Amino acid sequence: MYKTTVTEIGELVEAFKEESLLILFGPKATPELRAISVIHTHEDPTEDVIQVGGKFRIGEKEYEIQEVGSAANANFTELGHISIYFREGENEVLPGAIIVSPNEWPDLHVGQAITF
Questions:
Q1: 2 neighbors 116 (Cβ within 8 angstroms)
Q2: Around Cβ 53, how many Cβ atoms within 10 Å?
Q3: Which SUPFAM superfamilies does this chain map to (predicted)?
Q4: Which residue in 8, 18, 43, 112 has its CB near the most CB atoms, within 10 A?
């Protein structure tokens, strides 16, 4: 299991709620990326922590990982970055993204734990 903590929530994050998209980034995110991202503490995972059938949890809300893009683990390891879609079956998963279910936007707060 990999655990990290929300340290900042960009002012434009809620604008992506309608798209059912949440963007995570580690602390090295640029100011432009910080505006649209949930920033979290980040230490390089020792293995690919994002797997189909695995769990993603933010705060009290738990999701099942349905699909994992081909670059998702590498991007997460290097940058703490991943795009999370809370929807099923609409399109192919993008390389740096995952798709989770259920299709429910999480309540977001600084200090929340994120686990994979």
A1: yes
A2: 8
A3: PTSIIA/GutA-like (SSF141530)
A4: 112
Q: Which residues of 70-98 are buried (b: 16+ CB within 10 A; e: fewer)?
A: eebbebbbebbbbbbbbeeeeeebeebbb
Overall domain count for the chain? 1
The set of residues, in sequence order, having a beta carbon less than 8 Å from that of 104 and lying 6+ positions away, is 61, 86
Q: Which domain holds residue 111?
A: 3-115
Output the 3-class SS for the chain. CCEEEEEEECCCHHHHCCCCEEEEECCCCCHHHHHHCEEECCCCCCCCCCCCCCEEEECCEEEEEEEECCCHHHHHHHHCCEEEECCCCCCCCCCCEEEEECCCCCCCCCCCEEEC
14, β-bridge pairs: none
Regarding pTM above 0.85, the answer is: yes
pLDDT score for 45: 76
C-alpha–C-alpha distance, residues 28 and 115, integer Å: 19
What are the pLDDT digits (tens) for 4-32?
999 999 999 999 999 999 999 999 999 99
